[in-house]
Amino acid sequence: MSELMRLDRDGPIGVLRFLQPAKRNPYSVAFVDSLVTCLREAEQDDNIRVVVMTGGDHFSSGGDLVGFQGEIAKGAKATSEMVDRVHDGGRAAYLFRKPLISAVCGVAYGAGLSLALSADIVVAAEDARLCEVFARIGGCPDTGSSWLLQQRAGAGVARMLVLTGREIDGRTARELRVVEECVPAERVEARALEIANETAAHPMFGVQTAKRVMRSAAECSYLEALDIERDAQSVLLCAHDFPEAMKAFSEKRKPDFKDR
Fold first, then answer.
1. What is the pLDDT of residues 234-254, one digit of tens each?
2. Closest CA to 19 of 34, 8, 3, 30
């Protein structure tokens, strides 16, 4: 555990808590390093089946503009290397093999919004404040925003939010399909945990394979998606849980899954 975040366990659920909500959990290089470490720990822990990310009162205010100034002052090469290192956080979250859920209260700006959107499911507070802030500060999207937002909300909505730098609340984010669920602030973490437990109840080999298939299919054509599905489903059909499901169905009983 670092002073920036910790990984808690709640049965089969890992809860990744950002620990500086009073500072709005700035997305610093140190934050990224801690994020990568915690996600790696959660991925290697076989007892953790799903992870919920939460920043408490504030998810993340985005890039640590004060802390980044020293590297930017060194020139283009150092700046590029710093941005790539900052991108390690998004890479770790997006490539996380287990289901990942973001519980968003307060602000999710810039890189903080990118991190939230890198999860499989986003639960936002009704009064959460989401913003692709980059245009306001003379920048362009980074930390995956240009791709993640278009995947969720479509190209037109993504361009509108990026080019205007408009702040939207959780209700609007749900209407625009930027997030999946919107609940009162006091219910955000509880709702995220409900979804996590619902997901954790299923055989994990199948769930993790389904996540990989969905992510891969989103980046290819329909015919390519069919090939991805065929290859993955062929393995699952022969795996230890799917045959048991078919046998239980034919015997009219509840399946006794081994992957629990």
1. 888 777 787 888 788 788 888
2. 3
What is the rounded distance in angstroms from the CA atom of residue 225 to the CA atom of residue 111? 29
pTM for the structure as a whole? 0.89
- The helix-helix angle for 76-94 and 65-72 (nearest 10°) equals 140
- Report pLDDT for 260: 55
Task: Round to whole Å and give the CA distance between 119 and 224.
Answer: 23
Locate the domains of the chain by residue range: 5-200, 204-250
pLDDT in tens, 98-121: 999 999 999 999 999 999 999 999
All residues at 6 or more sequence positions from 220 whose CB lies less than 8 Å from its CB, including other chains = 228
Give the whole-number percent of the chain exceeding pLDDT 90: 67
29 with 111: CB under 8 angstroms?
Answer: no
Q: Which CATH superfamily is domain 5-200 in?
A: 2-enoyl-CoA Hydratase; Chain A, domain 1 (3.90.226.10)
At CA 51, angle to CA 49 and CA 54, rounded to 5?
Answer: 165
